[in-house]
Amino acid sequence: MIELRNVSKLFGQTRAVDAISLSVQTGELCVLIGTSGCGKSTTLRMINRLIAHSAGSIRIDGRDIEQIDPQQLRRGIGYAIQNTGLFPHWTVARNIAVVPRLLGWPAARIRRRVEELLHLLDLAPAEFAAKYPSQLSGGQAQRVGVARALAGDPDILLMDEPFGALDPITRESLQNELLRIQAQLRKTIVFVTHDMDEALKLANRIVVMDKGRIVQQDSPQALLAKPANAFVENLLGGQERGLKQAGLLRVATLMQVLTTAAAPLAGPRIKATDNLRQALSLMLWHRCSSLPVVDEQGRQVGVLRLDALLDRPR
Amino acid sequence: MSLPLRSNRVIPLLALLALALLWCLDFVSIQPNRIAPGSGLGLLAALGPVWALLLTGLLLACGLLALWSPRPTYGPILALVWLLLLQLPASLAWSIERHIGADLPYARVGIGAGCWSLLFLLGLLLIELQQRLGLSRVWLLGSAVVLALLLGWLAGQGWLEPLALLREYQSRRSQFAAALSSHLALVGAAVGASLLFGGAIALLLQRYPRAHKGSIGLLSFIQTIPSLALFGLLIAPLSYLSAQFPALQQLNIRGIGWAPALLALIAYSLLPIVRNTCVALQEVEAGVIESARGMGMSPAQVFLQVRLPLAMPLIIEGVRVTSIQAIGLTAVAALIGAGGFGTFIFQGLGQSAMDLIILGALPIIVLALLADGLFSLLGEGFSSGARR
Ligand SMILES: Nc1ncnc2c1ncn2[C@@H]1O[C@H](COP(=O)(O)OP(=O)(O)O)[C@@H](O)[C@H]1O
Ligand SMILES: [Mg+2]
């Protein structure tokens, strides 16, 4: 658990972070969002003491971080940044092995760990272990960046706009990857972004920051339902809010269940695990007011009607 | 007539120029003895019609190959240039064979302007080809080494005996060896010391960036002092010190000799080393340093494992520039009695002995080429994994 209490950071006269209090529960994926320059990165970097805070206290699992040796502290916290920051003169395997080596693991254990992580991030070890960062695509490099952050098996992961420089398709696949890994490993993650769709998709909790202060912190649903002020509303995309909210709900929650599974069928249909935003888009495209819902094997398991979307409780 | 769009014009131009100079200038000159005035021999007279026409044909072929094939095929041109280069020692041996008989035991054969021009232009052609083909710079070095080996072998066989350059060398073997060792010692000590001091200065400037502008300004100012003036300026204070402290005299530290030369060389070498090292250390991407720190590396680990290795190619580039500069400057240091190959150059200038001048200048050029190739190789080795 990470607790920030009345934490401030001054750079000369500028108050980059202004008396914020925040606690991130163990296993939670907390997203810091806000416009550029609002103090997100500064907040993140105070947690691993890359920046010293000017006032307030920061505790990790109850221990004040000022009591912990900064290098020791950082070896226990995964850190991934935009543009990867991979070491260009080391191979992928050596890059991933940085923290385990700093922790003094035996060579055999490091080798096993690197292989395990490459598998976890869907990079074939035989193909990628010996490559240099310059030989990777942006998405592959960022996967290595995430693997490197996970290498020492830290409880906490700090990620500063890790997918910010990627194209939309690659970004989406890495977001899915992160959700899959998080479901598997249950790390405590603080994730910085300026992209609300990314925040809504990933977060257990969204922390909206503006000018160094926390404006609102809530679950994605609660944030959408009750934005605290015009700034948050604007960040949520104003008129697109309805779609964003629909994007958070699974088709399965509103479909009418069929009692017996039917055979696979042709034509427009939607998966039970897809979200309502995708369902709405399909209905608009095919100009229909109901869609058959199918499971992973393509068998029909229910029907989704437009009425159900409109009639759902607030 | 229109040329194909993709044809190369540099190679034909160089080849044509080589051809013109080869035919217009003397290929070799012959003196009956060291005192007597020499007489020049043109290409035809020196090598006879067959060899002369062969050379002409090869050079024309180079130009035409580059010009007329729809896409210049650099491979065959490279082979031709190599052939031209390697025939140079042989052509000298051949002209000696043709013109120097047993009746001229003291005759000396000077290498003529035409021969030098051909060597120089072939060098330019090689550089052009190396760049077109994307070969490593070490490749040029290899060519020079092969040429030198061939020359050495022919000389060993006694075929180049009457070459004036060789005669000058043979009467100065021990001086040559001494010049080589003092030249190398001065350059090595200067580059080594400036790497040490320059590296330390660069590190200090990293820590105190406010001193950066002033220090670089001072070092640049030193760089603008003519070398001869700087050598001269050091004579007075060093003579004074040496007169005051006999211990210094024991070490042979006087107003003239190796001490002022080394000091001046270090002063000149600091700028390229400090500047390159500073730039190299700063240019390392901020994100890389940030993640190194974020992973929990200590400041020393960040420096030794990340910043320094990533800065290495540029630092070595600084050392390369510095050593080439020092090799050249050491020639001038001969004027204040520091030894080195400059001694031959200034002796030769005094005696108007062209071949003695060349005996001093040629090894300097070779040393510079060697340093260039060596440090290029080293730099390439360091950056191969880090290429972005
Ligand atoms: N090292 C620094 N020195 C001075 N000012 C800084 C420094 N780092 C950040 N700032 C300032 O602090 C504010 C917040 O920066 P940052 O946390 O990087 O914002 P972001 O939310 O975009 O990540 C900005 O106004 C920035 O200019
Ligand atoms: Mg930022």
Automatic annotation (TrEMBL), chain A:
Keyword Transport among record annotations: yes
Residue intervals of the CBS domain: 262-314
SUPFAM superfamilies found in the cross-reference section: CBS-domain pair (SSF54631), P-loop containing nucleoside triphosphate hydrolases (SSF52540)
MF terms (GO), sorted A to Z: ATP binding; ATP hydrolysis activity
Keywords: ATP-binding, CBS domain, Nucleotide-binding, Transport
GO biological process, one term: quaternary ammonium group transport
Alphabetized Pfam families for the sequence: ABC_tran, CBS
PROSITE patterns: ABC_TRANSPORTER_1, ABC_TRANSPORTER_2, CBS
InterPro entries: AAA+_ATPase, ABC_transporter-like_ATP-bd, ABC_transporter-like_CS, CBS_dom, CBS_dom_sf, P-loop_NTPase
Positions of the ABC transporter domain: 2-236
Coiled coil: none
Similarity comment: Belongs to the ABC transporter superfamily.
PANTHER family associated with the record: GLYCINE BETAINE UPTAKE SYSTEM ATP-BINDING PROTEIN YEHX (PTHR43117:SF5), OSMOPROTECTANT IMPORT ATP-BINDING PROTEIN OSMV (PTHR43117)
Protein name: Osmoprotectant transport system ATP-binding protein
From TrEMBL, chain B:
An example Gene Ontology CC term for this record: plasma membrane
CDD domains hit by this protein: TM_PBP2 (cd06261)
Superkingdom per UniProt: Bacteria
Keywords tagged on the record: Membrane, Transmembrane, Transmembrane helix, Transport
Transmembrane segments annotated in the record for this chain: 40-67, 74-94, 106-126, 138-156, 176-204, 216-236, 256-274, 326-350, 356-378
Localization in the cell: Cell membrane
A single BP term in Gene Ontology: glycine betaine transport
PROSITE patterns on file: ABC_TM1
Metal-binding among keywords: no
UniProt name for this protein: Osmoprotectant transport system permease protein
Species of the source: Pseudomonas borbori
Lineage: Bacteria, Pseudomonadati, Pseudomonadota, Gammaproteobacteria, Pseudomonadales
